[in-house]
């Protein structure tokens, strides 16, 4: 449903390093980068970082193909300077197979990786 989303960040260089590390385990990378912003995705940008003043903290959830990818996202984000906002685990109050992890980026945005696939 969402084509793309834009986050305004106070320090794009710092945020770019954070997102590169956090998104690598999920298969997302920088696909466009220029004075207008930095776009992360697979073949096209889905999440843009733009220079500006963050106004409100947003919640962005990105798809993880496996629970292991959620775990790797969380570890990479924490190592890149993220702050814990919910360690990897089942969130049964959302859905019985909802496995997610939440981190706060350098500007306090709540970034989540979620896998909705059941354990086989």
UniProtKB/TrEMBL annotation:
SUPFAM superfamilies in the record: Glyoxalase/Bleomycin resistance protein/Dihydroxybiphenyl dioxygenase
Keyword field: Dioxygenase, Oxidoreductase
Superkingdom, natural source: Bacteria
Leader peptide range in chain numbering: none
Tagged with keyword Transferase: no
Residue ranges annotated for the VOC domain, each copy included: 1-116
Keyword Oxidoreductase: yes
Coiled-coil ranges from the UniProt annotation: none
Family matches, as PROSITE patterns: VOC (PS51819)
GO molecular function, one term: dioxygenase activity
UniProt protein name: Glyoxalase/bleomycin resistance protein/dioxygenase
Organism per entry: Asticcacaulis excentricus (strain ATCC 15261 / DSM 4724 / KCTC 12464 / NCIMB 9791 / VKM B-1370 / CB 48)
